[in-house]
Specification:
Elements: H1 53-56, E1 63-69, H2 75-89, H3 96-114, E2 119-122, E3 125-128, E4 133-139, E5 143-150, H4 170-177, E6 180-184, E7 192-199
Antiparallel strand pairs: 1-4, 2-3, 4-5, 5-7, 6-7
Helix pairs in contact: 2-3, 3-4
């Protein structure tokens, strides 16, 4: 799968998202500026050290995956299973427990954030109804970047949690399990993307 153009915001040089690795020579990659289904195998771009701000956004990750789910209670376990299978396929089994937990928390938060939303915009197209939850996984040889889109424009705010509370620790957990995380508003879309980096 590929990223849609809105995901290019995740690798801008303004610090709004995770940075990308240099492309692996000789490998087949899919670039950021490509609509899903329009693959560009073997497409090579300049590395981050020699690219300007716009060019740096097009540097591909060696591994990429995309999943779209309904904003339902079953979304988190489905996303968790998808993450496990994809990371095993990419030979990143050591990252599976942590990445699967982070994905589960982010997707659960995205489903909750989508409640009550009656329309959303994605890739410059408005659609009625409760928006779906979109999950992107990007990886190189030692780390995976998790990005989750939901239709709510409200940024995530970690809240103080009472010790006896049964919920509310999702973002605290994401922060403790990931090497870095953040949030950005994607271009030509409503809502937000929350991202986290899990490293081996």
């Amino acid at each position: 799968m590929t990223f849609s153009p809105m995901m290019s915001a995740a690798v801008s040089d303004q610090g709004t998202g995770p940075s990308q690795p240099a492309p692996v020579s000789g490998a087949s990659h899919i670039g950021y500026g490509v609509e899903p289904g329009q693959e560009e195998a073997g497409h090579e771009e300049a590395g981050p050290e020699e690219a300007g701000p716009q060019e740096a956004q097009d540097v591909p990750w060696p591994h990429q995956s995309y999943l779209e789910l309904g904003s339902l209670a079953t979304a988190a376990p489905c996303a968790r299973l998808h993450t496990k299978l994809v990371l095993w396929e990419w030979d990143l089994g050591a990252l599976v427990p942590t990445a699967a937990l982070v994905v589960s928390e982010l997707v659960s938060n995205a489903v909750q954030a989508s409640r009550g939303i009656t329309e959303s915009c994605f890739a410059d197209t408005w659609a009625p109804g409760t928006p779906p939850v979109r999950v992107w996984l990007s990886a190189d040889e030692y780390r995976v970047v998790i990005q989750v889109w939901d239709g709510s424009d409200q940024p995530p705010v970690p809240q103080p949690v009472e010790p006896e509370a049964d919920s509310g620790r999702g973002l605290l957990l994401v922060g403790s399990l990931s090497s870095e995380w953040g949030c950005y508003a994607p271009e030509k879309c409503s809502g937000k993307v929350i991202w986290a980096v899990v490293e081996g």
